[in-house]
Design brief:
Layout lengths: L2 E2 L11 H6 L7 H4 L5 E4 L19 E4 L4 E5 L4 E5 L4 E9 L1 H7 L22 H4 L5 E4 L9 H6 L6 E4 L1 H21 L4 E8 L4 E4 L4 E2 L3 E8 L4 E8 L12 H8 L12
Antiparallel strand pairs: 1-10, 2-3, 4-5, 5-6, 6-9, 7-8, 9-12, 10-11, 12-13
Helix pairs in contact: 3-6
């Protein structure tokens, strides 16, 4: 399987994440030649969907320009997409009991589509996943979507990562279901941020060389109680959900401050 060599000029604010990726070489000559100007991802990029983030504040991280980060707003979720990996870096949702009640009964469309708002050189395609051996794994689950429009948008490939089939259909599906059950019991809004983690060597699929994550995470923050935890799962068919890790552990692993200004309880 082809490998994606990650750039040496890494997210400037990322510590342990950078250490892991620093072992990899440059992506390609064309990428290596790019200007190495940090692109700070902040609130203005998500101005049309700040409601998806706790305190209307997106995660705090500075990504090198080679990651080609782009903020995308959808009706029920927000995506920070990477044109380097051709996957989301994270996907944010605000969930509550009312929204999930609205989601009940919505028919799953299964109409995957290529995200036209992304430059063709930065997006994954349907052909990339075909016969790849990987599922098109939702980061914001279709079952979370409050109406038909949101449901249709959840099938954008900008919301997908290559996911091991049994992992997607069993382990990860159970995590998604358990998260919805928690939201239904919660007294208020619950903010969920889901994404991939790439530990070298990074495999790729398809002509576009879509990066295959080594792990997946799902951060859950209950605004009412102030508690947060994260599911951390290896992206293999044998991957199993263990005990959730703490918010601090997730930040340490990824180098991304997902809840800026907040100090959630374990």
């Amino acid at each position: 399987m082809p490998r994606l060599t990650m750039p040496r000029f890494l997210p400037t604010s990322i510590s342990s994440f950078a250490v892991r990726l620093a072992a990899a070489a440059l992506l390609a000559t064309s990428v290596a030649a790019q200007a190495q100007t940090p692109v700070s991802v902040g609130a203005t990029d998500f101005s049309n969907c700040l409601s998806q983030f706790a305190r209307a504040t997106p995660p705090k991280a500075s990504f090198d320009a080679s990651w080609k980060p782009r903020a995308l707003c959808f009706y029920d979720f927000a995506v920070l997409h990477s044109g380097l990996t051709r996957t989301p870096l994270y996907v944010a949702e605000k969930l509550n009991a009312k929204r999930l009640e609205d989601a009940k009964g919505e028919e799953r469309t299964d109409r995957f589509y290529e995200e036209a708002r992304l430059p063709s050189a930065e997006r994954s395609t349907l052909a990339d996943y075909r016969n790849s051996g990987y599922d098109r794994g939702h980061m914001a689950p279709a079952a979370d979507m409050s109406d038909l429009r949101a449901m249709a948008q959840s099938f954008s490939l900008a919301n997908m990562v290559p996911q091991a089939p049994e992992n997607n259909r069993r382990t990860w599906a159970r995590i998604e279901s358990d998260t919805r059950k928690f939201v239904m019991r919660a007294k208020g809004d619950v903010y969920v941020i889901t994404g991939p983690y790439f530990q070298p060597p990074v495999a790729t699929i398809g002509p576009s060389k879509v990066a295959v994550p080594s792990h997946l995470f799902k951060l859950v923050y209950d605004e009412t109680s102030g508690r947060a935890w994260a599911h951390w799962v290896e992206n293999k068919d044998s991957g199993r959900a263990g005990r959730p890790i703490t918010y601090a552990q997730l930040v340490s692993i990824t180098g991304i401050e997902f809840l800026p200004g907040l100090k959630p309880l374990d």
